[in-house]
Design brief:
368 residues, alpha+beta, DNA Polymerase III, Chain A, domain 2, 3 domains, 43% strand
Length: 368
């Protein structure tokens, strides 16, 4: 193989693809990236047997070929090269020669035969979504994906397409997040995408109106983002019937400025840390929300004046779960819907139903 390309293009591609590379793997080739040259392109792939990321960059190809090189070492080298044109050449002993200006490296590579094939699958369905929309949908829900591998199905989010609506639903037993957007699709489909895959896709998405293709198979999915393809397995199993878990009754309702509430909860959170998890107590009554937190290190109180409709209620929350729900709303005002001290609280927009978050309360101890 003998090729040349732009250092900036190469560094960006290797940096993004390397996120799918295993840090420590039983197969040594999986700690590397696969480089292929053909036509006027250089293809770079990373794969950890769960997620694969692959992309093409423009290159001048004198001799086509394939090689596997250490992802970390190759990226470190490329980032520090002094000039913009990079020459890459390999020989029959799998030695890779990297030349840029007066700098040259020789590193040991591996045969591409040792590199597992990225999954290929037959497309059964697909939708197209704007990059900005998908970015917001993932960001506003992925925080609620479970980290508990005891129930693998909840380490991913439910993607549901039905009646021209695309929903992403994440749940971890303590909170739930739902994000809904209208799409131009007649599909009727649902599948579970791993949270780790969504985080990698999120890093590639820009805040623009470019189209992202989502290609769906029986057991795999591909996200086509700009010039990248993220390939992942789907999680098999039965996802929670989320609609039955959304409280239908409303006993207390509050419309409040999102930033004011976030700042108040953050002030209460200063008394909590990894070892101390005391609930943030919220007392809704007399057109006030009285917030308090008492832990081994002290006590804090705050009052927010706000119009409250319905019954008074005192309820407690894990500060981190409450803040996650509030910070991922992206609206200046939100509506809080409560149904007693032990029922989950709903956080939703004042108008419309583009998002819905549910936070399960903590049981409060009686204070003297």
């Amino acid at each position: 193989m003998k090729i040349s390309c732009l250092r900036t293009d190469l560094a960006n591609a290797v940096s993004n693809v390397s996120r799918a590379v295993s840090a420590k793997a039983s197969i040594p080739a999986l700690e590397g990236i696969l480089i292929k040259s053909y036509g006027d392109k250089m293809n770079i792939s990373g794969y950890n047997l769960e997620i694969g990321i692959t992309t093409d960059i423009d290159a001048t190809v004198q001799n086509e070929g394939e090689i596997v090189v250490s992802a970390k070492l190759f990226l470190d080298i490329v980032r520090r090269l002094p000039e913009e044109i990079v020459m890459i050449e390999t020989d029959e002993r799998m030695v890779t020669y990297i030349t840029c200006g007066q700098v040259d490296y020789q590193i040991v590579g591996m045969s591409s035969v040792e590199y597992p094939d990225l999954p290929t699958f037959e497309q059964t369905d697909g939708i197209t979504v704007k990059a900005k929309t998908l970015r917001e949908m993932i960001r506003q829900t992925v925080y609620a994906v479970s980290e508990n591998t005891a129930k693998p199905i909840y380490t991913g989010s439910l993607f549901e397409i039905k009646n021209g609506l695309f929903k992403i639903v994440a749940v971890d037993g303590y909170r739930m997040a739902i994000r809904t957007e209208a799409v131009d699709s007649e599909s009727d489909n649902k599948f579970v995408v791993p949270g780790k895959t969504q985080l990698e896709v999120l890093k590639l998405l820009n805040d623009d109106d470019d189209d992202v293709q989502i290609i769906i198979g029986q057991r795999h999915i591909t996200f086509k983002v700009n010039n990248y393809r993220v390939i992942s397995r789907l999680i098999e199993g039965t996802f929670l019937d989320y609609k039955t878990t959304i409280p239908v009754e409303t006993r207390t309702e509050v419309v409040i400025n999102t930033r004011i509430l976030i700042e108040s909860v953050e002030r209460m959170s200063l008394l909590n840390n990894e070892r101390i998890q005391s609930p943030v107590r919220c007392n809704f009554s007399d057109d006030e929300i009285r917030l308090s937190c008492a832990s081994a290190v002290g006590r804090a109180n705050d009052i927010i004046s706000v119009s409250i409709m319905g019954e008074p209620v005192e309820i407690g929350f894990n500060n981190r779960y409450l803040l996650d729900a509030l910070k991922n709303t992206d609206t200046d005002e939100i509506k809080l819907v409560l149904n007693g001290p032990l029922s989950p609280m709903i956080v939703k927009p004042v108008k419309g139903d583009s998002f819905l978050s549910i936070v399960v309360p903590m049981r409060l101890a009686n204070e003297n």
